[in-house]
Amino acid sequence: MQCEPSQSRTSIASNVLIIMDEKKGKERLIQLRATVLKYAHEYYVLDTPSVSDEIYDSLVREIKSIEKEFPTLADPNFIIYRVGGKALDAFEKAEHRIRMLSLNDAFSYEEIVLWRDRLQKLAPTAVFEYFCELKLDGLAVSLIYEDGVLVRAVTRGDGVIGENITQNVKTITSVPLVLKKKEKGIFEIRGEIVMAKATLEMLNKKYATKGLPLLANTRNAAAGSVRQLDPKLTAERKLDFFAWDIAQSGGVSFIKHSQEHEYLRTLGFITAPHEAVAATLQEVEKIIERIETIRSGFGYGTDGVVIQINQLSLHETLGIVGKAPRYALAYKYAAEQATTLVTDITTHVGRTGIVTPLAHFTPTKVAGSVVSKATLHNIEQIRRLDIRVGDTVIIQKAGDVIPEVVSVVMNLRPKKTTVFEMPTHCPECGEKVEQRKGVTGDASVGFYCTNQMCPAKQSRGLTHFVHTMEIYEVGPKIIDRLQEEGLITDAADLFTLEESDLAGLERFGAKSAGNIIREIQSKKNPPLDRFIAALGIIHVGEQTARDLALHFKTFDAFWKATAEDLDSIENIGPAVVESIVSYIHSTYGNNFTKKLLSAGVTPLSLSIKKGGVFEGKTFVLTGTLATLSREEAKKIIQDNGGKVASSVSAKTDFVLVGENPGTKKDEAEKAGVPILLENDFLKMV
């Protein structure tokens, strides 16, 4: 091809030298880009490539060569530029234009029927049609397109605020950087970032040879991969994206959710296979059963089926409750299970004196982590399972968190096994163990140590008290030492200690003794909820104590409460009511609280901001903060309407991280839970 020398440029495609001017270069780029898009769609979306990798790579090289010669023709949003930009220092927060909701769960067909019945009451004349689709095991994200071009990708976060992960999402080949249909306006596409099972296996083989930590499961791997600060690391993980909703659709309208899925595919997105429309719940049940039989062979992790009302006009009628839409439900299949061998059954004495049986197994991986023991709860559970030492058992993670024994594989039981019986005497102090009636008056399966001064009860009760009251200078070893020396018999005695009591003890210098006493004395005016929780009343944890403190305002009012007063409080059930009443009227409860008050401990009423910035949010704290103590950070969260939990779970909204964080930070990263640094936290306040 000939042209004037002054206007010419060169481009190399494969081994061919091409000479062209800018106009011809533009024409050539249009052709090349269309062809590359076609081949990319065949490869990444349809999984039916029509050309070899070498041909595809050759076309890509030609595009880059022309763009290098004519920079004004370059298109940074084109599909071949998925990996780019430098690593980030941290992810920016981004607000969702439309709130990202969560789904309520169902674990049986009966629960699905109850869900349908509730909806029918809200829309009595409606004839529901249902849309069923796979519930993928990954990280939910929102993609924003302006005039067909991807401009932003944000994690779900708390549904209102997520993290901007745009650079990383651009590395995912199944995410169109430009929509296949050039739609004008704003399109918001929502879906799931996932990792294929084969990819996980390939990466773990690679990491094993290098001595690197292995990825636990596809869900955690996807969430952790997309939150890498360096986009190149995300690209190496070979993630995929499945679209499942259109939150904003420019000027395009739909009548049914199934039509949205059809339109997603015309835009260039992949949707999960096995989706189906059902006219009745009987058809829904058949779909669920069919998917259950084939889901193990699906290339991606899936733990259920999302069922929603197909008619979009009914979504507004049915509405939203809390963080979840009424018009949709997630049916969950049974948790991942594994088998293991029971090596021992022991008992553990808690702070209330309850003796709890514990099964020990051969360490076994289930639902992404290794477990070696699980509580058996009580003797009735042991009898129901008929579990014995030497048995092969099926275990699973309850709620994907707590290990539990599901059943015994009877045909693998050894010939000689012994039926387990609860001990007649406390394994800690040797005193008698008795079975007591429960707080609701029914026969309880609980066995308790009868010795009020049992060392295990006293030690764990003291540890619970100082932990809840946040007396950080007094740890378990110091508690044991003070008990051994006869300086304390219960937590109330801590507040009567003086420096001279400690300074004379071996390994307790004047400075150490002073620090401990000052720490104890500084906690004489705890918030009322913390004081109530520290008492160790059965069934009264931090959140229940907080509900009680907010209702009664003062300790005196709480202590005079009747069963009727307590029963009127939301979230306080009969078992909790009777436990509190029993404690208030017990000799021990009265003597202990009077002793605390006489020692100068004066709990203070709570001061809560209604509609605070953290209302409805749950935090987990880890590490040492620069300007706040953990107690101060906790108080700020609670005073602004939030809650503080001790461990990361699906209900965690933020993990507040300081210096030298523990495993909670790693757990948050794996689960895709937003991580807050102290400065970000204070800005939110």
Description:
- This protein is an alpha+beta fold.
- It has five domains: 5-73, Helix Hairpins (Orthogonal Bundle); 105-332, D-amino Acid Aminotransferase, Chain A, domain 1, CATH 3.30.470.30; 335-444, OB fold (Dihydrolipoamide Acetyltransferase, E2P), CATH 2.40.50; 455-590, 5' to 3' exonuclease, C-terminal subdomain (DNA polymerase, domain 1, Orthogonal Bundle), CATH 1.10.150.20; 618-684, 3-Layer(aba) Sandwich (Rossmann fold).
- The chain is 35% helix and 22% strand.
- It is built from 24 helices and 26 strands.
- Strands 16, 17, 18, 19, 20, 21 and 22 form a seven-stranded antiparallel beta sheet that branches.
- Helix 12 runs antiparallel to helix 16 and helix 16 packs across helix 17 (542-552).
- The longest helix has 24 residues, at 22-45.
Would you identify the regions where 5 or more consecutive residues have pLDDT less than 50?
A: 1-19, 83-88, 438-444
Helix content: 25-40%
Distance between the termini: 66 Å
- Indicate the mean pLDDT: 83
Backbone shape: globular
The fraction of residues assigned to DSSP E strands is 15-25%
Q: Under the CATH scheme, which class of the largest domain?
A: Alpha Beta
Q: Work out the number of β strands.
A: 26
Q: For the CA atoms, what is the radius of gyration?
A: 31 Å
- Classify the oligomer: single chain
Any idea how many domains? 5
CATH superfamily of the largest domain, called what? Answer: DNA ligase/mRNA capping enzyme
The second-level CATH architecture of the largest domain is 2-Layer Sandwich
> Structural class, from secondary structure content?
alpha+beta
Report the sheet with the most strands, covering strand number, pairing sense and barrel closure.
7 strands, antiparallel
CATH topology (fold) name of the largest domain: D-amino Acid Aminotransferase, Chain A, domain 1
How many DSSP helices? 24
